[in-house]
Amino acid sequence: MARLVQAVEDFTALDAACRRAAGLVARVTRRREVKNALSGTWLGHPLHPVLSDIPIGAWVMASLLDATTGAQGARAARLLVGAGLAAAVPTAAAGASDWSDTYGATQRVGLVHGVCNGTATALQAVSWVARRRGHHAKGAVLSGAGLGLTLSAAYLGGHLSFVRGVGVNHAAFQEETGTWTDVAAESDLVDEQPLRAVASGIPVVLVRHDGQVSVLSATCTHAGGPLDEGHLEADGCLRCPWHGSTFRLSDGKVLRGPASVAQPCWEVKVEAGRLRVRARTVA
Is this prediction's pTM over 0.85? Predict the structure, then answer.
């Protein structure tokens, strides 16, 4: 299986289709409310993995009933297939939103993941129609085929998360320090211009906006983008240059996805013309 996934990662012929599809998804999710809803910004972590459990679970149970109860469990199996179909729509939407912000090998695997899931959903839909018409055996076979594709897609989804790092908080393993650390001269900080510095080995970004100095970790929680190269918004937020995630300087809160996890925030003080910082919260 690993070799097959590697082949997909290296299959650059998929890139043209990826670009077209990702561009379409980006246009559909351009509005902040849409992006935040699908990214899981309101939830505190990505939405797609949460939703994906519903269709997978429903279709596994439907096939289990097909295998163990036969016609006796036909109605319950059909209801489970239908529930999975209903959940598949928002699950796919959230997944497509996340996928549109990926690139290269990750995006290629994500495209195949989506195609497998789309095909599986189509098979489940045909299965539901067959079951509705009383063709339980045919529906069971179609659901079994669809479930096989779903589980294959789930393997690819695991690869995307645990190998490629999609959806992982890229600031999760920073070792925060509670010690005041000198990072820069106050004179180095120009108003409204992000300044990159390092505090105990952790990249941080300092911004003076409206006379107030704020400090966030410089590694974007979404995909590791350099926030110090981002754009300072008029409302006191810093926008990541990679995917447009926007964080409030005062507390690191996400105001626009695709990020779903707040940016680590640091305390700052000035001593003898030097800027010193420490983590706002230390575990």
Answer: yes
